[in-house]
Specification:
By secondary structure, this protein is of the alpha/beta class. The protein has 12 helices and 8 strands.
């Protein structure tokens, strides 16, 4: 579906079913250079099991208009308006990498809108090598190639895919090459408020991390989990791009967390 937020069109994937704001809602936020396709398996499962799903292409990405966020802080107020335009008062918030930083800013702006928060393949701070930012300014395609080399775990680099005949590295590289990576990476590099907000979260919260993550290393994810006061789910052998390279395992952990929260709040 399409919404208009800040006078710009926003494409929103809904998991293959018509969005119904009366159902419990799960909001999925993609990472740097990504789009709604990050969440193909997860959105479909939730949409067909009693939830409504919102997986937007964030401003300036893929099918959405407008300009990319120049700061993570900017994304918080945007997400509040986005949920209001979708007639959603509360949602389970799921963020991958940069998307989790935006989830933190949403929580800071409107904690009452967050039924729960789940961090996937991320940390409270995401330092970015200046050389990568400079490369992205020159060419998103070159930066996407570098990020996919670093971002996927060893199985993906050996051609292992959860979908026969599909190569997640190539798909991700194609998507990221056409999106505003430089703006996304700079926003991550500049963001310093994550630890303080993470430690303040009172809503149900969880982290799904990976042992072979080179972009937000496991030690950083564990530090985030400690700040949030929870025990993380750790997936063995996978890299940073968990929703794409370990979609079933990511979904299983996400299902257990969100369904538990939903059952307890019913």
């Amino acid at each position: 579906m399409e919404l208009i937020v800040n006078s710009a069109p926003v494409y929103v994937a809904t998991g293959g079913k018509e969005f119904d704001p009366k159902l419990p809602t799960v909001l999925f936020l993609h990472g740097s250079g990504g789009d709604h396709r990050t969440w193909a398996l997860q959105t479909r499962w939730f949409a067909y099991h009693g939830f409504s799903v919102l997986a937007p292409d964030l401003p300036g990405h893929s099918l959405s208009g407008g300009d990319a966020f120049t700061s993570i802080e900017q994304s918080g107020s945007w997400l509040v308006e986005f949920l209001e335009k979708a007639s959603v008062k509360k949602a389970h918030i799921v963020g991958h990498s940069q998307g989790f930083l935006s989830a933190l800013e949403l929580y800071k702006s409107k904690p009452e809108m967050c039924l729960s928060i789940c961090a996937i393949g991320t940390a409270a701070a995401i330092p970015v090598n200046q050389a990568l930012i400079d490369t992205a300014k020159e060419s998103s395609a070159k930066a996407a190639h570098m990020m996919c080399n670093w971002g996927f775990g060893p199985g993906a680099h050996q051609g292992i895919s959860s979908v026969p005949g599909m190569q997640p590295i190539a798909i991700s590289r194609a998507i990221m090459s056409r999106n505003p990576l430089a703006a996304d990476l700079q926003a991550c590099a500049d963001y310093l408020a994550g630890s303080e907000i993470a430690a303040s979260i009172k809503a149900p919260r969880h982290c799904i991390l990976a042992t072979a993550d080179k972009m937000t290393p496991l030690r950083s994810g564990k530090a985030l989990a400690e700040q949030m006061g929870i025990t993380p789910t750790i997936l063995e052998g996978f890299g940073h791009m968990l929703p794409l390279e370990a979609p079933r395992q990511t979904l299983a952990a996400l299902r257990e967390f969100i369904q538990t929260v939903q059952n307890e709040s019913a």
